[in-house]
Specification:
Length: 455
């Protein structure tokens, strides 16, 4: 092996001086700076001096010289004169502050080179001053990073965007914010525009809608839509919350239909309506016909299944429309248009509980007729002078409403029936007083009734 340690040549005998001389043991090809190392368990050998700026390294068996350090940790190194190009020196200086901090995720934005630039390796293998990154950019990392006070322009997220509870997405410096907290997203400071699309809640498709809102309630039977107001404080909290003034829900739990509920508080007693159905017609001239095909501003239509996929009209005796007091029906309209109104018993409601037989029912009917038209177009006769009743009496007897604006249908029917009966009895009394010769000339029906009278 080259470079072994051996005795120098001194002849056949050694003097004391030769034995102690520094030249007695020499390395083959020995030169200044060489180093001795054990090349085996029995042999010392020479390691030639390394070239300039080489460092002594070990491969685990033998020492050697190297121009790089690989896999080593340098604790508080001091670099006095790095052997780098001028560009590399700038780049190293630029990243020194970030490297020295030792913090995870520190962005390399030193002060040398161009402020804020990143460092990069060039084609010659030198670390040089790199490009200026956009503000807030995180480059080449899979670690969790934090951006504070940064603006992201057209960001692309390959994975989920996670925002902690209480986190806020801020648009236009607070013009609109989206906040998450306790399983609730809150939009503040602006409006939400879905555009010309369908907004779905618990649903993904609706073939019958192009633009609108579709809500899938599942098997729930409570409200599907609720309207609230801080102005409302009704007492009917057994039905809805105190600030609810309207709601939509199924009228049949397993069958569908629609229940529209309106609730008002005590302010309704001031003359308002709890539920209104209003139609505004934009036409200046409306339909004036009165046929089964006439149109109107407000139209309510009832239909039923035809047994297939379309609808059909109700049968004549089927109930088309009703109005009730709580769950008691008071007004009923049949499929053929027949009206049914509650048969109000005397004494109920605002009726005075007195029949009208003691009054001149014929005179009351004539009074109603005359006051309705204010005598305009009425063919007056001297019999009109005999009538003593007036509008006030019609109100007192419950034929007209308290201000005379409405007719009470049931009471009017009573009055008309009484007028007919009074007229009939008066006629029969006159006929009864006729001579027999005259009675014999009367129609047989009248003669039969006269014969049936008790004598």
């Amino acid at each position: 092996m080259a470079g072994e340690l051996a005795h120098g040549t001194v002849g056949t005998e050694l003097t004391q001086a030769e034995f102690e001389a520094t030249t007695l043991h020499v390395l083959a090809s020995q030169a200044r700076g060489d180093m001795i190392y054990a090349s085996s368990t029995t042999q010392l050998s020479r390691l030639a001096v390394g070239t300039v700026n080489k460092v002594l390294v070990s491969d685990g068996t033998d020492p050697g010289w190297s121009s790089t350090l690989s896999g080593l940790t340098l604790t508080s190194p001091t670099v006095n004169t790095p052997a780098l190009s001028a560009d590399s020196v700038d780049a190293i200086t630029e990243i020194a502050a970030a490297l020295k901090s030792g913090a995870d995720g520190v962005l390399i934005t030193g002060t040398a080179g161009t402020s804020g630039d990143l460092a990069q390796w060039n084609a010659d293998g030198d670390l040089v001053d790199g490009p200026t990154p956009p503000s807030g950019t995180i480059v080449g990392t899979t670690d969790t990073q934090t951006l504070s006070g940064k603006t992201l322009t057209d960001p692309v997220f390959d994975n989920d965007l996670l925002i902690n509870t209480g986190g806020i997405i801020n648009f236009a410096s607070g013009d609109v914010t989206l906040t998450h907290a306790a399983n609730l997203l809150t939009l503040a400071g602006g409006n939400f525009n879905f555009g010309a699309n369908i907004a779905f809640i618990n649903e993904t498709a609706n073939a019958d809608m192009t633009v609108g809102l579709t809500i899938q309630q599942g098997a729930n039977d409570n409200d599907i839509l609720t309207f609230k107001s801080s102005d409302v404080a009704h007492p009917i909290t057994g039905s809805r919350e105190a600030d609810t003034f309207a709601s939509f829900r199924k009228s049949l739990a397993t069958g569908g239909g629609l229940e529209i509920l309106a609730i008002s508080d005590a302010d309704a007693s001031l003359g308002g309506y709890t539920l209104q159905l209003i139609g505004f017609a934009g036409d200046a001239t409306l339909d004036t016909t009165d046929t089964s095909a006439s149109t109107s501003v407000v139209f309510v239509s009832a239909r039923k299944s035809d047994g297939g996929t379309t609808t059909a009209a109700l049968a004549s005796t089927e109930n088309l429309f009703s109005i009730g007091n709580t769950t008691t029906v008071r007004f009923l309209l049949k499929g053929d248009g027949t009206l049914h109104a509650t048969n109000v018993t005397a004494g109920e409601g605002d009726l005075d509980g007195v029949a009208l037989d003691d009054y001149d029912d014929v005179g009351l009917v004539r009074t109603w007729q005359r006051q309705r038209w204010d005598d305009a177009g009425i063919a007056m006769s001297h019999w009109d002078n005999m009538i003593q009743s007036n509008k006030d009496e019609l109100i007192r007897l419950g034929v007209l409403s308290s201000e005379g604006d409405f007719i009470k249908i049931q009471r009017m029917f009573d009055l008309q029936g009484g007028a007919i009966w009074q007229t009939y009895t008066a006629l029969m009394e006159v006929i009864s007083a006729l001579p027999k010769s005259v009675k014999a000339k009367l129609p047989q029906k009248i003669q039969n009734k006269l014969a049936a009278l008790p004598h």
